[in-house]
Inverse folding.
């Protein structure tokens, strides 16, 4: 799958910023690949990119329209179809991370065929996966887990990759969601894998490696979320994690899109250790990653200090303060994996 850039990011008319997290993630980690954003009337999200029409983007050299949104059920609203057809007619390919396949919508498939353009359904893979075995494999693995969905698991893993590489670790980000695939150019959208093969797909994403190599595996959902816990559990078992980082957003009272209350960080740590021990009895927490965007700087600093004192783990905001303290803990707990950068 070779998705050409520059990108035009399509935000549709989503109701809030979190619904555009795919587009925002691409901007945050691949800004140089992005030309602009396309928003429909009523859109409440903004990535900060210049607003463009399809034709303006095509004239500026855009190669692909990215449907940069998420929604419950992963559906494509009918009134977005015309915009996608316009992009195809203007010479752009179209890529989507939604559950619905672009090619399954007759009007889009026909326009793509007529215009000679490509459709990319990033959430769907043609790769055939085996059932997970849980057999011990070489290499080190860190998984980001969450108190909820959309709390920064991808950002934490990407920030850890950047910081660990800077400090001499051999570390790779492993994408398990559509945004991560757009950012890294590889991976599998785990929530689109048939349930029996989820753990096997993660074993495929993170195969046996050098004993000092770290795979930083992007987590999905939450073990406590009534909608997504099945995906989270399969991912945990397939990851066979040596270490995990708990990701949290401190202002939420209920889990996203449901009425269930958020679990505590302690509950997430205990449940992750208990369930993760099935495939790695040595699994342990290594840090806490917090999205403090809703807090002022003093409140954020105080909150992270409180978590650190309460759980005896480094607590950090990857975007605001960086993840240096978590990487220092990894170096202290796993000293033999430091300084093993790949040649070249």
């Amino acid at each position: 799958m070779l998705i050409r850039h520059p990108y035009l990011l399509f935000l549709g008319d989503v109701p809030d910023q979190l619904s555009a997290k795919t587009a925002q993630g691409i901007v945050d980690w691949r800004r140089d690949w992005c030309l602009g954003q396309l928003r429909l009337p009523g859109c409440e999200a903004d990535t900060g990119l210049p607003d463009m029409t399809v034709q303006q983007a095509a004239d500026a050299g855009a190669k692909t329209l990215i449907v940069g949104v998420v929604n419950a059920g992963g559906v494509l609203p009918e009134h977005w179809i015309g915009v996608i057809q316009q992009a195809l007619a203007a010479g752009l390919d179209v890529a989507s991370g939604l559950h619905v396949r672009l090619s399954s919508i007759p009007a889009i498939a026909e326009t793509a065929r007529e215009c000679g353009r490509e459709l990319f359904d990033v959430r769907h893979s043609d790769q055939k996966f085996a059932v997970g075995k849980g057999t011990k494999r070489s290499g080190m693995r860190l998984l980001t887990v969450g108190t909820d969905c959309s709390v920064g698991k991808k950002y934490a893993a990407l920030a850890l990759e950047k910081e660990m590489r800077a400090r001499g670790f051999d570390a790779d980000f492993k994408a398990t969601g559509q945004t991560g695939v757009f950012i890294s150019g590889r991976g599998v959208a785990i929530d689109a894998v048939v349930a029996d093969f989820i753990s096997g797909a993660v074993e495929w994403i993170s195969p046996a490696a050098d004993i000092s190599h770290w795979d930083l595996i992007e987590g999905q959902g939450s073990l406590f979320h009534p909608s997504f816990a099945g995906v989270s559990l399969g991912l945990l078992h397939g990851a066979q994690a040596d270490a995990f980082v708990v990701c949290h957003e401190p202002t939420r009272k209920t889990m996203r899109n449901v009425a269930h209350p958020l679990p505590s960080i302690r509950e997430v740590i205990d449940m992750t250790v208990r369930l993760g021990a099935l495939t790695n009895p040595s699994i342990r927490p290594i840090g806490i990653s917090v999205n403090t965007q809703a807090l002022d700087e003093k409140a954020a600093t105080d909150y992270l200090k409180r978590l650190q004192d309460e759980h005896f783990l480094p607590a950090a905001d990857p975007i605001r303060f960086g993840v240096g303290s978590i990487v220092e803990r990894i170096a202290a707990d796993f000293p033999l994996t430091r300084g093993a950068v790949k040649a070249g």
Q: What stands out?
A: The first helix runs from residue 21 to 29.
